[in-house]
Amino acid sequence: MSAIAGIYHSNNEPVPVEHVNRVMQSLQKYPANDIQISHKKNIFLGCHAQWITPESVGEQQPYCDYERQLAITADVIIDNRDELFEKLQVKYIERKAMTDSQLILLAYYKWGEESPKYLVGDFAFVIWDERKQILFGARDFSGSRTLYFYHDTNRFAFCTTIEPLLSLPYVEKKLNEQWLAEFLSISGMVDVVDASLTPYKNIAQMPPAHSITVMEETVKVKQYCTLTSVQTLKLKSNEEYIEAFQDVFQEAVTSRLRTYRQVGAQLSGGLDSGSIVSFAAKSLSGTRKQLYTFSYVPPNDFKDFTPKHLMPNETPFIQSTVQHIGGIKDHYLDFEGRDSYSEIDDFLNTMEMPYKFFENSFWLKGMFEKASEENVGVLLNGGRGNLSISWGSAIDYYALLLKKLKWIRLASELHHYSHKAGGSRFRRIPVIARVAFPFIERLFPLGDSYEFPMLINPEFAKRTGVFHKLQNYGIDETGWFSATNIYEQRKRHFEDIFHWNASNTLATKLSLRYPLWKRDPTNDLRVIRFCLSLPEEQYVQKGMDRALIRRATEKLLPDTVRLNQRIRGVQGADWVHRMMPHWSEFTDELHQLSKDQTILEFLDGKGIKEAMSNIHEGVHAKHAINPYYKIMMRSLIVHRFIKKFN
Asked: Which residues contact 511 (CB under 8 A, 6 or more apart)?
């Protein structure tokens, strides 16, 4: 794992040593096991290395293959090493010590610009091909690692983070209004739909699943990987589907345990993280390593205001999982005295851009801190599980059965579902009908529909044409995805490349700060493709939603967790409660924001006044779900960023 950087002058003008020093010095705020550069006339490659895997210890990075006239700097962990060794015919005696960056070079030497298609793992890398006089780089299919770049007629510069590029004298620091317009217009957690944009007009980002080729004065960026058109897998029995899933998921988990340090995992009371921990513990059994788990819990003085079917404190379920699996060193972290407001500036420095996930910001960072203290090298996480291993909404599946007029199957499913989730089997028919036939809701609405208050200044939106652009990605003027069908939403999620930019930006930059790597087996390319290939009935069966992972973890997870369909964990419900000691400071800053004409050029002043009139009614922990409180926090984060920018 590394922060990588480089500069290339296509006109053969030498790269000044001063520019090399500026870039590498900007990375010195991050801890490193080794810092190396390769500087040869008009090409410079640099690596600020943090050793995670056994093979990376003492690794030469940048690595130069003089025989093949190739050089590479890489931020990478490859997970399908054995498969690549076979395809590339690497000698057995060379495999154990071969680094991932060397393996990528061999892949590039054999397959050229097609090589990223063969790689499974988390990566961003750049190769200098001396013979062809080109730079070639790529970012993994979901963008797990960041890669930014600047280019003009004769110069190309790249880096894992943005600040080193801004240190170069020819890179002008200028606000990218298109990025900001998209960020403000999208109500959900997506930052922007154009994954090549950054908040800095002269700095672009390599999109996920894309490669880049720089040859003379030409810069070509193209997509090398898509997840569409996956053929449906047809097996003979439910048992065969479960066995096939267990095989592919075990491989994904096991390949992510490759570190010479300790292995950790974020653990909630749910299925995704519990499944990962159970499969990881199975792989680690018989080794000297213990699995460390890190779980977030609210502070002792937090009073739960949520409905009975929600659980902000998942400790009982977490402890049940830990005791059932065994061999786990568990940590329960309440991060007393920390809150979303006090950490805004620190988070902006880390992210290098505004962010939306403020409710969980302090504990997401805290998890990295605590894991680093325990010498964890790999921190497992199940962030993409809802769309892969634990996909399967019962209500939406039943709506599908209703539309297809499969009455007998639907009646049977509802009978089983009522026993597992509670309530009469016919009680949910009206809800299912509204999901199946959305026009019913339009004709007979149940009540006021929820809309997140608009954040963007309408004139700014009009000037940038942002809503017209968002329409091309299925986002309407409310800032939400217009498709209500979850099957269409899932399909779009894997077709689009922007959904995980924000979370992967955070993961990359926190990993550099607290040298460890967040790894998500539910986002393994092999797992994603397998899950997309399954028939829909594998995900909902006999009244059981998320049926694939529930059946696959029988005996691996306690039934109190595995079969729970009545209570759902909810994280971040305590964010307002934690901010109460700073409330007057928070509202004072909002008053300043509401009068700042610089920020009101971008933010909707009318909406801000409306939101402020709502938050002045008093503060209570239950306001954590109030959209006006959320909109003011987002506004404040953008305001701080603009002030820092200027």
From this structure: 1, 50, 368, 517, 518
Could you tell me the sign of the dihedral formed by the alpha carbons of 117, 119, 124, 129, in that order? negative
> Distance between CA 141 and CA 48 in Å, rounded?
23
Retrieve residue 422's tokens.
């509670």
Contact at 8 Å (CB) between 398 and 432? yes
pLDDT in tens, 138-165: 999 999 999 999 999 999 999 999 999 9
pLDDT in tens, 329-372: 999 999 999 999 999 999 999 999 999 999 999 999 999 999 99
d(CA 414, CA 426): 7
> Is-above-0.85 flag for pTM?
yes
Q: How many CB atoms lie within 10 A of CB 16?
A: 14
Residue type, 283: S
Amino acid at 368: F
Q: Tell me how many degrees the CA angle 172-173-177 measures, rounded to the nearest 5.
A: 115
Helix (H/G/I), strand (E/B), else coil: 141: coil
Residue 434: which residues within 8 A CB-CB, separation 6 or more?
440, 441, 446
| Rounded-to-10 torsion of CA 44, 101, 523, 352 | -20
CB atoms inside a 10 Å sphere around CB 243? 12
Give me 142's structure tokens.
């979901």
